[in-house]
Predict the 3D structure of the following.
Amino acid sequence: MNVTNTVRRTSYIRPLDFENGRIDMSHGSGGRASAQLIDELFAKAFDNDYLRQGNDQAAFDVVAGRMVMSTDAHVISPLFFPGGDIGCLSVHGTINDVAMAGARPLYLAASFVLEEGLPLADLKRIVDSMAAAARAANVSIVTGDTKVVEQGKGDGVFITTTGMGIVPQGVDIRGDRARPGDKILVSGTIGDHGVAVMSLREELSFETALCSDTAALHALVAAMVEKVPDIHCLRDPTRGGLGTTLNELARQSGCGMVIHETALPIRPEVSAACEFLGLDPLYAANEGKLVAICAAADADSLLTAMRTHPLGTRATIIGEVVEDSHHFVQMKTAFGGSRIVDWLTGEQLPRIC
């Protein structure tokens, strides 16, 4: 059932009990219970002019420029983790995918798959977190959908968000624009999100005060583009981490990449956790960091722009693009050697973003 076609002010005999109530199959039936859930929770939290129109879709005007669209499904366990939850993650993740084209995100659509038995208190916490993240990013959630599945056939809640944004005239940031001689930059420490989520997995005894880095990156990107309009590539290294992202960009651009282990910004607690668990921080997920590739002549200016923004204070240059017909990503180690940073094989940690 669409969020938009149920926004109304109908009186219900008994309001939803957000302290003790739970999702049941009637909330996905398309009837009165569905309308009540959408009216009292989703429409109230996401309230804006588009939702109040009560249509099955959102109609809006767009400014001049190229339109960008991205969609992302969010499945994570646990639903709540240090520094965030699946709600803000579902907003940040899609906003960031749009922003990696240099675009200003404008609108989001949200689809929820709820598992029977999910506490309404948890759902409200998630929805409120989404609403707060969208407001902070100045992005409206303008339409959506809600479904309910039987208990045991979901994982509490799955959220899919689709985002739309506009790329300003003259900006052309793509994954195939890296060229030999370009510099590779990251906006801050890597692996924070992955380790924060690991710390809550009930099968792991590791404990850390580290928080997820989940954040909306479009304001950082805008500052970068203002300083260096000709950024070649941007990518947020989420699932699969920095190592996978660099391999994606190397393949798209038809070149190789060399990074330097001593330049990688990794928190000591992330390194310790990954060593303890037998994981590689290069493949740990991030939700508030980006990789940028630009011409060598622009690298210092871009680095300065990144470091002057709150989300880029620990930005650094980590390597360079090289000619390589095999499209390998290599790392110069702290001991003076070299190793291939290959594609991630398998899954380091499931349901991470």
